[in-house]
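Lecture 7 notes: from sequence to structure.
We start with the chain below.
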Amino acid sequence: MKPPIRITSQRDRVFRQRVELEGAEDLFVDVPEAFGGEGSAPDPHDYFDLSLGACKAITAQMYARRKEWPLEGVEVVVNRDERDERRGVYRLEVAMRFLGELDDAQRARLEEISDMCPIHRLMTTATVEITTRQQD
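Predicted structure tokens for the same chain:
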């Protein structure tokens, strides 16, 4: 089991949170000014969305490395459509660009493989169970 992620409110900020992950630099979360925050950091939806984009990029890179394909980099753009979120539909559109001397079949395979990343599968096929409790 991974060490816990710790989130702490920043006392001198409205909604800004500091996120501590063992072995990594601290991250910060805020909400847009339109919702009473300062807009000083990505909001929770941004982290949800970017986790998908980053996972897809990493998965494609790992596959290309294993196949020894000349993938030089990956660019990912994630667009969110949250209009129907309150009705239970949250849409993400992911556009990927694979850099390097790859043929069409390799690019198509990398796109296909990216759909198998753990976060994509988690978001589309898993039942997520959440338990919230007060901590002493």
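Points to note: The chain has a mean pLDDT of 95. Residues 98 and 109 are 11 Å apart (CA to CA).
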